[in-house]
Every structure is written in C-alpha cells, then in structure tokens.
C-alpha cells in the first residue's frame, strides 16, 4: 500500500490521479480517518475511471448586486443623447420652477470668460467646477439661478482683431472700424462658447446671458462708477504698470508671462555728499532705470563697512564685502570703519550723472544681504517696491520713458548727452 501512495504522489500536480488523491485526503481528514485508512481508500478507487472535476466559474460564486446599467459606458454615444434629453425637457427650467419659492437662495456671480476664442482647458475647468457647486446647491432644495456671462472688451479681443486685420492688409483701419470688428468677433465666440459649455452639461440661463457689450450693462457700469466718484473713492495718480510696447497699452499682471533671461548687471558709484572720494556702491540689474533714480534704500539693522581701495572709499554691507571685493577684483582693500543703519540713513548722495542730491531711506522689507551690496537704487516710476517707498516718502513717481519704450528728452541732462531723436 505505501508503494501506491508514493506512486500517485509522484505524478504531475495537475494529473487526474493527483487531483483524486488530494480530494480523498481532504475528505478523510474532515472525518478523522487515519493514514492507514487513507491508503486503503486510495487503493480502492479506480483512478482511471474517475471523470475530471468540472471547471468552476468563480463569477457564479460571487454575491453581487444586480443592475440594469450596461457594463460598457459608451460615453461617445450616450452623452449626446443624455444632453439632448436634458435640453428638450428643459431640466434646468424645471429645477428653477420647482425651487422658485425656496426659503433659501444661492447666487454664484459668474466671473466671465473672454469671448476671444474657443473654450480652453482652464475655461472648461472653471465652468465645470462652478456647475458642480450649483447642482449641489440645487439638490439641497435651494433657489439657484445661474446667469452666465461674457467679457466682450479688452486687449485679448482687440489684439486678435488687429492681427486678423493686418493679415487682410487693413492696417489703416480707424478706431471706429476696429470697435465694430471687435463687437462682431466677440459675438461670434459668444455663440461658439455657449455651444461648448452646453456640451459640457453646464446648466444655466443660456438664452439670456449678461454681456459687457450690451448698452444696458455699460450704462449701469457708468452709474455705479458715478456713485464711487461721488463717495470720494476715485482719485488721479501715478503708479508703475506692466506695459505692452507693441500694443501701446497697460497689461494686467496675470497677462504677463516671463521667459528665462540673463540680465547684465552693473556696480554703480553714488558719491556721498560732503565726503571726498567716498561712494555708496549700488548693484543693479536694471541700469536703464538709473535716469529715474530719486533715492537709495538701505537696511536699518545691517552694519555697513567702509572699504578703501586705490584711494577711494566704498560703503558696502559688511557681510557682502568679501564677495563684492572678489567680484570687483579688489586685491588689496582696507576696511577702515563700520557704520550702523541709523548713521547710514543720515547720509545724502549725489546722482552718478545728473546734477542733483538725494537721500537714503529705510527699505527693510526688500533690502537683503544675500546678493548685491546692501543698497538698492530707487526709481519710483519703475517697480512696486520703489513705488511704495517713494509714495511713503513723498517722492515723485518719475518715469522718463514714453509709450514706445523710448527715453524722453528731459531737462535733467544737456541735449547732447541724451538719446538722439532718431533712436
């Protein structure tokens, strides 16, 4: 009998004989039979006459819920059909009628997209997220009106229209013609985007959107602006803005995209008033703003060193002195004195190339000692840090640059020392 068991165990794992033995042993183990009984059972069973076990379909053993939904989504076919039914049955209108008398109203003011092209991924995401919020509030039983809108004014539309007119050879169009073309262009893409938003399944009063180009909307804007003026909230002033030289117009910060750029930097000597051969050393990456310099900023908690080099004295933030000396090639320099921030703030300086004297001002919120010299030249007409410091200290917002990005002729320098008119 042991020989029979050994012979069967030696057969391949998937053989019928091996499967029968395994099954018998499982049964006998469940009933507490001994190894001797197992051997006897194995001997009595005619292995070749036993049919193979039927293949088990494991899906039939799972206890899953039954559903009428198809296993395949088929979105390409089903979505258009579903949307068609929504709009044919006016589901949005039914929701509005059902919840019109609800105790609570939820209003989402739609920040409108520009009507200057097809819907892109950002616009689609924006509208879809809003639609999720609105549908959720609808499901909570609230009165949820949604009036979509479009911004029909501004540089994006004008820029596209002017591009198309130039391609068509219409470079001499009058402002009135450009405005008419802009209106037609905007209305064209309002229809395009409305169709695309509806295709995304966004609910709203699509037949009655608000458009910034409508006369009623423009009139209401003027009324609201008049109210703001009457309350004294409007004043005329100057501040630095992003400027498009080709379009000759201001740009919003969100419209500006930066590319990697390596700027030339320069160390500039600002002579200290009343001290012979002594200079504030200023490092800047925007030397073209030097004609508009009206001040120098320092840090009130920094310590500044006076370094003597080849008979001249330079004032530099003390921890930056070794790096500045290396950059400027000062092989032999002598540190002769240390100044605290309050002493530095009492100094005045002369402009490097314009005959005028100016002061130093505290700029602790933007002056650092990681790069540069611990001084920052201030041109309030260029850059927001400069503007804020200039405004706080009653400096003029001065920018001698015209709309074409060219230096203006000013009284600061003799005409012969300024940019030629041809440039």
Please give a structural write-up.
With 423 residues, the chain is α/β, with parallel strands linked by helices. The protein contains twelve helices and 13 strands. The chain has helices at 2-9, 16-30, 35-44, 75-88, 91-99, 121-139, 155-167, 175-199, 215-230, 321-328, 341-345, 384-392, and strands at residues 149-150, 210-211, 242-244, 249-251, 266-271, 278-284, 295-298, 303-309, 312-317, 334-340, 348-350, 357-362, 376-378. The strands form four sheets. A five-stranded mixed sheet has the order 5-6-9-8-10. Strands 11-12-7-13 form a four-stranded mixed sheet. Helix 2 (16-30) crosses helix 3 (35-44) and helix 7 packs across helix 8 (175-199).
What percentage of the residues does DSSP assign to strands (E)? Answer: 5-15%
Could you give the order of the helices and strands? HHHHHHEHHEHEEEEEEEHEHEEEH
**Taking Cα atoms only, what radius of gyration do you get, to the nearest Å?**
40 Å
Mean of the pLDDT scores? 86
**Distance between the first and last residues' Cα:** 112 Å
Q: Helix/strand/pairing class, anyone?
A: alpha/beta
Shape: elongated
Which terms summarize this structure?
423 residues; alpha/beta; 5-stranded mixed sheet; 4-stranded mixed sheet; 14% strand; disordered N terminus
